Amino acid sequence: MMYSKIPLAQTVVQLCKAKQIKHIIISPGSRNAPLTIGFSNDPFFKCYSIVDERCAAFFALGIAQQLQEPTAVVCTSGSALLNYYPAVAEAFYSDISLIVLSADRPKHLIGIGDGQTINQKNVFENHVLYSSNLKLDLKEDETNSAEELPIFKSMENKVETLLGLKKTIQEYNEEEIDTTINRALLENGPVHINVPFDEPLYDMANELSIKPKPTNLVDKPLEIDDYVLGDCIKDWNAASKKMVLVGVNQPNQIEQRWLDNLAADASVIVFTETTSNLHHDTFFPSIDKLIAPLKNEGFRKLQPDILLTFGGLIVSKKVKAFLRKYRPQQHWHIDLKKANDTFFSLTNFVKTTPNYFFSKFLPQTQSLKSDYNSYWRHVEASRLVKHDDYLNRIDFSDLKAFDVILSAIPNDTILQLGNSSTVRYAQLFDLNKTLKVFCNRGTSGIDGCTSTAIGCAVVNKKQTTLITGDLSFIYDSNALWNNYIPSNFRIIVINNQGGGIFRILPGHKNTENFDTYFETNHHLTAEHLCKMYGFKYESASDEVTLKSSLHSFYSEGNQPKLLEVFTPKNLNDEVLLNYFKHIG
């Protein structure tokens, strides 16, 4: 097996291997050649070559999201590194392990006007768990001004000192790499390792010149202070209105018995979102559908005594507005890392996993006699009847398209949702319970949805469908410049000729200023992109054609497919706003 001749490159690669970092996404460059040589020549690693660094990082994010283990991205020096930033920020706020390995120039070549050089040290400082800046290997023929000192006059002293420095640098680099990777493994988040290399960059060796020694990971045992648990149990058992609100949540994270326990308590309502991946017949999966028509009296009835939250960020703006105005007496958040005071009422941060908390907490709670759950179940049933009635009478539009599309997605598959309108429309429907649903809600950006979905599809045996908007798709169209897309991957683009969500928000619509700077009207389609990148292209612009297209869309083929659904931009906002009026 061939290795880079540079000891520092060997150290990075071997420690990644020791820590079981298997998936390596490499963007081409020269300064990162030592790392590319090391990773790509070792059969342990699964390497991917993706030119666009922004796409590469989101692709890596999709892999890590599915495998729940770190992936690494490798790039050259200069602005290449900055293209990782959107995905790094998403990984930071979504608690996804991403290891950024950036090649850099030696320190003496930084800040002197050398090409492809920026200040890379700590460049992601505010959005990573840890940054390590490694030291350049010393060369045996290297000279510096210290050689003029008397101690270097003896060749023997010179060699001994040089060897001593090498050991110190090697130890420092090993410790930094080891620490950085461990942080990603233990704390679930992005980290950055900046690796300086001097030329020559392409020299190779048949054997390793170093043997790094990784440290063992040490997990802290899960625990809850007795007094914290005791207070929670006492307050819970005394409250007649308890609300559990679940944000972004990995599938199969919560044991079913704890869900059943919560569902059996008449004083508890459980609100879930499309990204919560939790299901029970008594849970409330379409929050906006339930609360959008409420007035003051209804909000006061819904206002909980205790709000218990877990999972990632919340999609629904309506539930956030409700809980900020009608605040609970207590808000508990259960998480190992952090507690966002989203509703300005946080009283208790229980630093553990939801499963562990429920295992210690729920067996000691008592079900109270209450009409809290039954009352809102009755309201939900009424909303559902009106929901179905409205969808049966409306013209073809975004809302109607989502109704048709979401009912056609095959059982037991993966659904990736784009941000902005897409995920919000999906919130209005009770999704197929066999689907596993994902969306980049850490920063809620449109910039990497397609790349993330492709990363997901590459490592998941189950079929992946991405539903995205036209602007999101076009923005991340370089995602299709990817040689690893499986033939069963499906993309559905809702093309309403611009940023349709802005028509729903307050503003002066149907003006030249609005069309240009907010909605950003366009007449682009995905057809030519599909031809260029080898996707089978289909389109629909009415309900009948859409249903017909979906019938064959999921049939097996030898290439991935894209279905572009054209909806009337001047009607979509009216249909949606009238929907909320109708279900009230």
Your description of this structure?
The chain has 584 residues and is of the alpha/beta class. It is built from 20 helices and 19 strands. It has helices at 7-18, 33-40, 53-67, 85-94, 155-187, 226-238, 256-263, 287-291, 296-302, 317-325, 354-361, 372-393, 398-408, 421-426, 449-459, 470-475, 512-517, 527-533, 543-553, 569-582; strands at residues 3-4, 23-26, 46-49, 71-75, 98-104, 130-133, 190-196, 204-205, 242-246, 268-271, 306-310, 330-334, 346-350, 414-417, 436-439, 464-469, 490-495, 536-540, 561-566. Strand 18, helix 19 and strand 19 (561-566) form a beta-alpha-beta unit. Helix 1 (7-18) crosses helix 2 (33-40), helix 1 (7-18) packs parallel to helix 5 (155-187) and helix 3 crosses helix 15. The model is unreliable at 143-154 (pLDDT under 50).
Which helices and strands appear, and what pairs or packs with what?
Blueprint: E1 3-4, H1 7-18, E2 23-26, H2 33-40, E3 46-49, H3 53-67, E4 71-75, H4 85-94, E5 98-104, E6 130-133, H5 155-187, E7 190-196, E8 204-205, H6 226-238, E9 242-246, H7 256-263, E10 268-271, H8 287-291, H9 296-302, E11 306-310, H10 317-325, E12 330-334, E13 346-350, H11 354-361, H12 372-393, H13 398-408, E14 414-417, H14 421-426, E15 436-439, H15 449-459, E16 464-469, H16 470-475, E17 490-495, H17 512-517, H18 527-533, E18 536-540, H19 543-553, E19 561-566, H20 569-582
Parallel strand pairs: 2-3, 2-4, 4-5, 5-7, 6-7, 9-10, 9-11, 11-12, 12-13, 14-15, 14-16, 16-17, 17-19, 18-19
Antiparallel strand pairs: 1-8
Helix pairs in contact: 1-2, 1-5, 3-4, 3-15, 13-19
